[in-house]
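Justification of resources, computational component.

The compute hours requested in this renewal are based largely on the per-chain cost of generating structure records like the one below. Each record pairs the submitted sequence with a full structure-token output. That output is archived, and it is also reused by downstream analysis tasks.
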Amino acid sequence: MFFFISKLIEVFLIPSNLIALLGLVGVLAIMLARPRLGRACMVISILLLGICGWSPLGPAALMALENRFAQPVLDKPVTGIILLGGAVDTHISSDRGTLALNEAGERLTAAVDLSRRYPDARIFLSGGASHILGGNAKMTESQVAREILVSLGVSPQRIDMEERSRNTCENGTESATSLRPKPDELWLLVTSASHMPRAVGCFRAAGFDVTAYPVDYRTRGAEDLKRPLDSIAVGLAETDLAAHEWFGLLTYRIAGLTAELFPSSR
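The structure output for this chain reads:
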């Protein structure tokens, strides 16, 4: 139930959706002879569009997430590499009969690189079906990711996976149940840098002390806060992504699924 409720609420809290909804409410209010309400909604909608689309708000919120975990210094053998779902499009893969990556595809290329650098490390894929709308894909995220890794030269004998998890905290609990890690083992957690704080919080809550290996950065550094954005679409995309992660951190903490609001490295 938590999965469905959180997904539905998030639809209305994502900044770009909220901006559009406010604008539509404004138009509807004017049509229903409520001009003051209509003008107020439309003004707020336009202001939010400019702030979220052109200001450094999105890059700043995203940068705070991406800077939370640095690239690790690995000074002992790597037991395994955990790759979280979210880097593939299961619907296009199923309907087109191809293997489709999305904008987070660097998670997979990083996993391939790590598999070559640490040839004795196990590879574990965590991800099932995480969509509540259009959920008719014939393949899970782990299945598509496995086929892509194999096509890029990773031995299928090295790959294990779970296909039950639908959100990040389920990634943590399902991975811990499947792998049963020992205290002296080093497991790398590979996911997008902006997603890493939420992912680490969920794995820690499941009793799995992973080592963060962030990839798929969307910001370059402090200079991004001074550099004008290319378009409103770019600014909205970064604001939406940041809002998704901050909303997830807050929701998981309030629901008691994690013990830390904003996890950091230990």
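Residues 232-254 form the longest helix (23 residues). Residues 81 and 114 are 8 Å apart (CA to CA).
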